[in-house]
Design goal:
The structure holds 2 protein chains of 2 kinds.
Chain A (H helix, E strand, L loop, with lengths): L1 H34 L4 H5 L8 H10 L6 H12 L14 H36 L4 H15 L2 H15 L15 H35 L2 H8 L4 H39 L4 H10 L3 H29 L1 H7 L1
Chain B lengths: L1 H18 L7 E6 L14 H10 L4 E3 L5 E3 L2 E6 L5 E6 L12 H11 L9 H4 L2 E8 L2 E6 L6 H6 L8 H7 L13 E7 L3 E6 L13 E6 L3 H9 L5 E2 L7 H6 L3 E15 L9 H10 L2 H9 L3 E3 L24 H10 L6 E6 L5 H15 L3 E6 L3 H10 L4 E6 L8 H6 L17 H12 L3 H18 L2 E14 L2 E2 L20 E2 L1
Parallel strand pairs in B: 1-10, 1-11, 14-15, 14-16
Antiparallel strand pairs in B: 2-3, 4-5, 5-7, 6-7, 8-9, 9-10, 11-17, 12-16, 12-17, 13-17, 18-19
């Protein structure tokens, strides 16, 4: 009973913290956008000529940009708590629609990267752990170091040169709807997913290796072996299962970080996700779109981290207790 | 075992490759350098938006592939002897909704464009329209407030497209409405962040055009992404070929480069403060810059030095004797600086943008050239939006600009040189207001006689060079890259390069 109550108080405290974090993000984004030089009205009125001051003033009024800073801020915040992010300055499209349209593609890319990272990282990590100290281990460890240190931009460009320009196997960039042509969809997903997933595979491999080695050194493993259980059973049934917990955590935590990693990959492969859109919105000083997108990304990041932390608490009650 | 896995992998990849182009039969893919901020017909929102709009819309006139005015929805027009009445005879054409293009539509279009809620870019120039008279359904007459010789040129701009009256009544204030025009392609969808899709308009008034069924404009903002897309054949045409990639693309036998030497790079001076308030100092800057250095540094050699005014051969005011008014002459630059009271040079803030490599590299080259005559240029390199804000506020000593005249009539100069009420503008040198220049520009607008008009611009050219509110640096090559299976696409000559979207109606695929 006390356990449950403790959990609820822990949970509510985390939710309150998350809300405060979001408020801080919202305030910072809102202020930074307004402090930045650049006038969305002038950009909107076309960059090749000189709109009259009256036209500029009328436009500014129409977009509500002529009101005092604090009034704009409180008005925006008031609408955000009702999940109304306002409309894009350039075409009056609801920001929520923009986000709803682009976010799934960013998540798809991040998820695909995690799958790629896991499929490559876990087996390599296991192989390295089982061949500890031998040449395979050193080779895999070096590869992992390389994977972590190569910037996605370099790796992505390299892949494009090899697979698109030299071999001509894969398109260099772009996106096709899965409904329109599923094969084409996955062909275009493959290179960005691999680019993003490669670095992740490296950290997963290292984590798997370390975790495996730790478990392999435990007494219960020695006991199992002493009992005469086959090595295969020891590794696959007992060691791997125990080693999986930190690996799963790493994967969960990486989802948040991957959201940031998608920016470069999306730009490089012209993947139409939220990050690409955000960069364009900043360039156009499209205030509501920038604010809305960043807020959603921040909320996701916070939610994922909170989820992982809660999961810790569920797995290990000590964490819960320490916090309450 | 290992070999067979490899074989399967190879086979899988190849079969995937083979499946891909089945649905791409008569579709043209066009790689734009940016997603248009708006497709609003009357707003000049950059080349990408213009290209799309020129596929959807037509005006009474347009600029044709030869760079001359071409009769589009108007089959002919006549001007009254006093130059204040323009009568247009419309041809039989229809909008994408099937309705015929009538004089009422023309009237409604310009009423909307000049109306109180209009955001039209050329509202000022078209403001010369006093009233529009519907003579009969196929005839429309414009009455002007005063003589305005360049009038047909402003009607030929992509931003003067004719829209259906009924559509305007319903959607005139809605920037998101699906556009309807009378051009070769009709609007299908705009997937935000990805592409704009158009399809062939079967009722287009030019028989046999357009030559492709579907037109996909894809947004390839990153320079390298755009270049890779054309090299791998993901797209068939790209705009704004980055200058650094020109040599490699020229070597590719599947691609041809369509270049026009039309837009130019220049420096605008803030004439409000010393030292740039002195014509000698501005002239000194012109003498101090070795144009070849800029062309090689920022444009990979793809440009032509500009030591005079950006007048095309044969245009009114073009004078071969003035073509090389300036020269690369650092000694002369120093002499002029000394005369102006700056024998040891000075410090000044040079605005450009880090967002576009060619702007930034131009600024860097100019800085190094000016250092040789003692002028210390402090670079100010915000992103494009930041640069625009500073530009429009006159918040700079001098600024790198890359642009072109809007129209081929010499009246494009008014936008650059005219003083008047608004002294800080996008494309002028802030606070430059010379009564003689203003007088000549006014006279050029109202002089009907061509010989007399040419003389006015001749006089203008001399005065403009003497005062030099701008330092012109170079004509830059503006290039499209086109796959060899595409024919009919034309990079329009000179200033009109940015309106090349017009030629999409001629494109066919092999």
């Amino acid at each position: 009973m006390t356990g449950l109550l403790g959990f609820i108080s822990f949970l509510s405290r985390r939710v309150v913290t998350a809300c405060v974090q979001l408020l801080i993000v919202a305030t910072v984004v809102f202020s930074v956008m307004r402090v930045m030089p650049g006038d969305p009205v002038m950009l909107l009125l076309g960059t090749e000529t000189n709109p009259s001051p009256e036209t500029v003033a009328a436009m500014r009024h129409q977009l509500n940009l002529d009101r005092p800073f604090l009034e704009q801020y409180s008005d925006w915040l008031g609408r955000v708590v009702h999940f109304d992010f306002g409309n894009s300055l350039t075409n009056n499209f609801p920001v929520a629609d923009y986000v709803a349209d682009a976010l799934p593609r960013t998540l798809e890319l991040a998820l695909a990267a995690i799958i790629v990272g896991t499929l490559i990282g876990v087996p390599l990590g296991i192989a390295a752990a089982l061949h500890r100290g031998r040449w395979l281990d050193s080779a895999l460890t070096s590869l992992a170091t390389l994977g972590i240190s190569v910037p996605v931009y370099i790796l992505g460009s390299l892949l494009i040169v090899v697979f698109s320009l030299r071999l001509g196997w894969l398109p260099a960039s772009g996106y096709t709807d899965i409904g329109r042509n599923a094969v084409e969809h996955f062909r275009r997903l493959s290179m960005p997913a691999f680019t993003l997933g490669f670095g992740l595979a490296a950290s997963i491999a290292r984590m798997t290796r370390a975790s495996m080695l730790e478990i392999l050194g435990r007494d219960f493993v020695r006991a199992l072996r002493a009992k005469g259980i086959s090595e295969r059973m020891v590794i696959w049934k007992h060691v791997l299962r125990n080693a999986a917990i930190p690996v799963v955590t790493i994967i969960g935590l990486q989802l948040g970080n991957l959201m940031g990693g998608t920016v470069l990959v999306e730009a490089l492969f012209n993947w139409p996700g939220l990050a690409t859109r955000l960069v364009n919105a900043v360039q156009n000083r499209n205030y509501p779109l920038v604010q809305g997108s960043i807020l959603v990304i921040a909320a996701l990041f916070i939610a994922i981290n909170m989820g992982v932390e809660l999961l810790y608490g569920v797995i290990d009650p000590r964490i819960r207790r320490r916090r309450s | 075992m290992r070999t067979s896995f490899k074989t399967i992998l190879l086979a899988a990849t190849f079969s995937l490759t083979a499946l891909a182009p089945a649905w791409a039969a008569k579709t043209l893919y066009f790689g734009l350098s940016v997603e248009p901020s708006t497709l609003e017909a009357s707003v000049q929102a950059g080349t990408a938006a213009r290209t799309v709009r020129l596929a959807i819309h037509r005006g009474l006139l347009n600029y044709g592939v030869d760079g001359k005015l071409s009769s589009e929805l108007a089959q002919s027009y006549s001007v009254s002897p006093d130059g204040k009445e323009y009568t247009f005879i419309l041809r039989k054409a229809s909008f994408h909704d099937g309705e015929p293009v009538t004089a009422e539509d023309v009237k409604a279009t310009f009423a909307w464009l000049l109306g109180p809620n209009s955001r039209a870019t050329y509202k000022g120039e078209l403001g010369v329209i006093d009233s529009i008279e519907v003579v009969d359904p196929q005839t429309v007459r414009f009455h002007l407030k005063n003589v305005f010789v360049p009038f047909p040129h402003y009607l030929a701009l992509a931003e003067s497209a004719i829209l259906p009256k009924a559509w305007l009544e319903k959607n005139g204030t809605n920037p998101n409405a699906a556009p309807v025009g009378a051009g070769p392609f009709q609007f299908v969808t705009w997937s935000r962040g990805r592409e704009i899709v158009l399809k062939k308009f079967p009722g287009y008034y030019k028989a046999g055009k357009p030559g492709v069924d579907e037109l996909h404009f894809q947004f390839t903002t990153d320079d390298d992404t755009r270049v890779n897309a054309i090299r791998t054949g993901d797209v068939d045409i790209i705009e704004y070929v980055p200058w650094k990639d020109l040599p490699a693309l020229k070597k590719d036998k599947n691609i041809r480069i369509e270049s026009t030497s039309g837009p130019f790079m220049m420096l605008q001076f803030n004439t409000h403060f010393e030292p740039f308030s002195k014509p000698e100092v501005r002239q000194a800057v012109s003498y101090a810059i070795n144009r070849a250095v800029v062309i090689d540094t920022a444009f990979n050699g793809a440009g032509t030095p500009l030591y005079g005014l950006p007048f095309v051969k044969g245009a009114p005011g073009y004078n071969p004797a003035l073509e090389n008014y300036f020269s690369y002459n650092p000694a002369k630059a120093k002499e002029l600086l000394a005369k102006a009271g700056y024998p040891n040079g000075f410090k000044a803030r040079l605005l450009a943008t880090a967002q576009y490599g060619y702007h930034m590299n131009t600024a860097i080259a100019v800085k190094s050239e000016l250092a040789k005559v003692g002028i210390d240029a402090d670079l100010d390199l915000p992103d494009w939006a930041g640069r625009m804000a500073k530009n429009n506020a006159g918040n700079y000593d001098f600024v790198v600009a890359g642009t072109a005249g809007d129209i081929t009539d010499p009246d494009w100069l008014s936008n650059f040189y005219y003083g008047g009420k608004q002294l800080v503008r996008m494309n002028n040198s802030p606070y430059f207001d010379d009564p003689e220049i203003n007088r000549l520009l006014d006279a050029g607008r109202v002089t009907l006689d061509e010989t007399a008009r040419a003389k006015i611009y001749d006089e203008f050219a001399k005065r403009a060079l003497e005062l030099s509110p701008f330092a012109y640096i170079m004509w830059r090559d503006q290039s499209y890259a086109v796959r060899s299976n595409v024919s009919g696409f034309t990079n329009l000559p000179g200033f009109l390069s940015f309106q090349s979207g017009y030629s999409l109606e001629n494109v066919t695929l092999k």
